[in-house]
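Hey L., structure's done. Input below.
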Amino acid sequence: MAKQLGRDQQGITLRGSAEIVAEFFSYGINSILYQRGIYPPETFTRVQKYGLTLLVTTDPDLKNYLNNVVEQMKEWLYKCIVQRLVVVISSIENNEVLERWQFDIECDKTAKDESVPREKSQKAIQDEIRSVIRQITATVTFLPLLETACAFDLLIYTDKDLAVPEKWEESGPQFVANSEEVRLRSFTTTIHKVNSMVAYKKDSFP
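Output:
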């Protein structure tokens, strides 16, 4: 007998999964930039998403940059050729890397050949994403204070044979020297799984 899915349970396609994950990165990056004070708080506005009040940038240049990144990520997620996104926070004064928020992406490539959507409700996925975003916010409470003006960079790790698109450039990994690491929660759409962690510089004084 044919199975009918209700509106909330329409199932997850590869395209739909790519959009969910790219959207998570958009809100996740905004949250990190706000929480870590990389941009002034008055340049953010409140929005409702995942049952949470989140902050997103109103800075036109940053907005444009992040929109371009998210659109590119959607395409790479859909093609299953992206493995990791990293938000690197470094000191403007001496370029020292102080924090590295890393999101590892696993993609089930068999989804490329499937015609039937995977069964997982949007609500279940949103609940998992909400837990990750909450944890990003909670993690900030025990990270060392960023006592210097900082900038951020985004690194995206893709399959080796991918041609580098225009406006992107190849980069080194930008690791944190003398770091502590904290693993965060993961979430999965059943097609893409995202594992999160943050590495931060240990305080010089115990």
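Residues 1-9 have pLDDT under 50 and may be disordered. Strands lie at 44-49, 52-57, 82-91, 97-107, 150-158, 179-188, 192-201.

-- N.
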